[in-house]
Amino acid sequence: HPDLLALYLIGTDEIGHVFAPYVPPRLDCITEADFARYSGTVDAYYGVVDAMLGQWMRRAKEDGATLIVHSDHGFKWGADRRCERSSQDWSTAAYWHRYDGVFAAWGARVVSSPRRGNMTVFDVAPTVSALLSVPVDAKASGKVAPAFGPLAAPRKDAEAPEVRRVAAKQMSAEESDEYAKKLRALGYLSGAEAPALAPSGGDRPDMTEGAWNNLGLYLREEKRDLAAAEKAFQQALALRPNYHSPMFNLAILYRTRGDDAQAREWLFRSLDAGHAEPERTIALWYEQYRDGKKEPAARALMERAVQRFPSNEAFARELALSRFRGRDCAGALEALTRYQAATREPATLNALGLFHTCLGRRPEAIRLFEQSLSIDPNQPGVVQSLKVVRGG
Predict the structure, then answer these.
(1) Cβ contacts of 15 within 8 Å, gap of 6 or more
(2) What is the DSSP pairing of strand 103-106 with strand 136-137?
(3) DSSP 3-state percent helix, strand, coil across the chain (nearest 5)
(4) DSSP secondary structure string, 282-328?
(5) 3-class SS of residue 193
(6) Which of 335, 308, 311 is nearest to 321 (CA)?
(7) Of 8, 233, 260, 356, which residue is most buried, by most CB within 10 angstroms?
(8) How far is it, in rounded angstroms, from Cα 94 to Cα 220?
(9) Among 131, 132, 130, which residue's Cα sits nearest to residue 154?
């Protein structure tokens, strides 16, 4: 009969990362066949977990114990899921987490209520400490969960509890490799993050680079404290200078501040360090700048993108169109003209036709619009443009 027994069921998270895209309602990126095959998987798995919890409830009743079930985060199951962000890719997996999690308590000491209460993850440790009548650290935040009525708050101890590293059996090379593969498959680890964590120094545990990065995310997204978040991300980089995740998070932070030059610099640093799907990431940033009507920032981003990805026709086309919107017709043509001979993209041909029209080169514009329509005749706007150019 231990005073405290903690059990971690990792599968409820794993099943979400693998199968959340398949639960109802069906997403556009999921085929009917895959939806029919996998849409019931999550419900079936959670049914197994519910049965396990029922066994623990029976055991808690027999022992006169209190059973607490809680999650460290929630998961997206409904309309807030996004096809463009994979639930298994390491760089986007966290977007499938919800900040709203679950806390439930059961046992003789629990005071039931018809209304749900509100808690934070910081309230779990004080609640457990109060149930055990043990003190908490003086700096601890959080309060006792409302599920226990008049349960007294735990005493705060001015002395930090003694916590030291203990010797642990090292994983074999085979075990370490398999564990790393599992974390990468679930989106928690990238190839660049596979090396051992940087030492934090001393015999007392301290925050790793991953912990500093997570703290920065919390400070940026939840507390809106950009200055503190910036320091946390920088601390992560001090421990591992080539860690791309805090680089990317700094890019978002500077973009939030409106410092687009710094944001752009850190974005490309993160891409150079191994951030996943660099071209897709740049495209998403470009769309956000355009949606925010920040044309100069969008153009500067695409200028840099074309330098880094010189064979990306879509980037060259967007840069050309941005220059055109800035009334630089010659510059627009210069950015895209090298694709003219070999392209089979109507959008590229149409853009080139637009630039030639702007420069007063009607015959070349007509030829380009005609070539575009030969590839895709169903372009009413191009048909109208061709009539206008032919008519002078």
Answers:
(1) 41, 42, 45, 46
(2) unpaired
(3) 55, 5, 40
(4) HHHHHHHHHHTT-HHHHHHHHHHHHHH-TT-HHHHHHHHHHHHHTT-
(5) helix
(6) 335
(7) 233
(8) 15
(9) 130
| C-alpha to C-alpha distance for 103 and 83, rounded to whole angstroms | 29
Q: Are strands 156-157 and 136-137 parallel, antiparallel or unpaired?
A: parallel
- Which residue shows structure tokens 């055990």? 132
pTM reported for the whole predicted model: 0.68
Query: How many whole angstroms separate alpha carbon 243 and alpha carbon 365?
Result: 48
Classify 261 as helix, strand or coil.
Answer: helix
Taking residue 65's Cβ as centre, other Cβ atoms within 10 Å add up to 20
Assigned token pair, 66? 């209190």
Tokens of 228: 């503190």
In contact, 312 and 283? CB cutoff 8 Å: no
- The number of angstroms, rounded, from the C-alpha of 238 to the middle of its chain's C-alpha atoms is 22
Peptide linkage before 25 cis (omega within 30 of 0): yes
Residue appearing with tokens 């939840």 = 222
Q: What is the full per-residue pLDDT of the chain (392 aa) written as tens digits?
A: 789 999 999 899 999 999 999 999 999 999 999 999 999 999 999 999 999 999 999 999 999 999 999 998 999 999 889 887 788 876 677 788 888 999 999 998 999 888 888 899 999 999 999 999 989 888 888 999 989 878 889 988 877 666 665 656 677 777 777 777 776 665 555 544 445 544 444 444 567 888 899 899 889 988 899 999 999 999 999 999 999 999 999 999 999 999 999 999 999 999 999 887 899 899 999 999 999 999 999 999 999 999 999 999 999 999 999 999 999 999 999 999 999 999 999 999 999 999 999 999 999 999 999 999 999 999 999 999 999 999 87
Residue with tokens 């959670």: 46
Q: Strand pairing of 156-157 and 97-98?
A: unpaired
Cα separation, 124 vs 390, whole angstroms: 73
Q: What is the CA radius of gyration of the chain?
A: 28
DSSP 8-class letter at 59? H
Most distant CA pair in the chain, distance = 91
Q: 300: which residues sit within 8 A by CB, 6+ positions away?
A: 260, 261, 264
Of 139, 117, 119, whose CA–CA distance to 71 is shortest?
119
